[in-house]
Amino acid sequence: MSSRPFTITAAAAVEALVAAAAGAGGVYVLIGTLLGQADDAESAVPLAVLALGAAAAIGYAAWGLFRLRDWARSPVVVTQLFVLVIAYYMATSGQYAACAALVALAAAGLAAVLAPATTAVLFPADDASGSRGRT
């Protein structure tokens, strides 16, 4: 097994942070709904379930990347692109500090997961049998 470069650990940590934020948002909406603070409980409950499901999927991608699974790179990249979309909408609503934090987070995650060291470990050169690295 190859040694894990810092870039993979950093990318997995950023992805885990995004998963934690999505999970916290889902729990926040769910608790608010259960306490009767939601304006529309019929919309809030599915939103909370969706956020918790997304947190689980994002967390699984972070775990896969940390375990050096090559399949995890694509979901991590897509997650960071979605974080950039959220940052855009934060900027359009005047929440510039949140936008800057999200852009920095997504840039760090993308830089780490697309770094040459990450690519070298996740996608080693083809061996003599013609098969690719880990599945």
TrEMBL record:
The UniProt keywords, alphabetically, are:
Membrane, Transmembrane, Transmembrane helix
Q: Does the keyword Membrane apply?
A: yes
Q: What are the transmembrane regions?
A: 6-31, 43-66, 72-91, 98-123
Q: What is this protein called?
A: Integral membrane protein
